[in-house]
């Protein structure tokens, strides 16, 4: 990582230390003040009726959550998947 951001740059060390202390994002089951503030900010920018924010760690988690939400919303259980697409 040092080749990407330099070696012992004081500003970068401070930012990384501050973020480690605040635990910005652990996993979707836990939130921290910065995550709550981000969610509130995002919601304030959305049209009325869109009032939820849901943060996940990976694309796979996001896809799984989207499929589960679609199943709950539609009441249907089948999905179509495309291989090698």
TrEMBL record:
Species, as recorded: Capronia coronata CBS 617.96
Statement: the UniProt record of this protein carries the keyword Aminoacyl-tRNA synthetase: no
One cellular component term from this protein's GO annotations in UniProt: mitochondrion
Name by which UniProt lists this protein: 2,2-dialkylglycine decarboxylase (Pyruvate)
Keywords of this entry: Pyruvate
Annotated family: Belongs to the class-III pyridoxal-phosphate-dependent aminotransferase family.
Domain of life: Eukaryota
GO MF, any single term: pyridoxal phosphate binding
Keyword Transferase: no
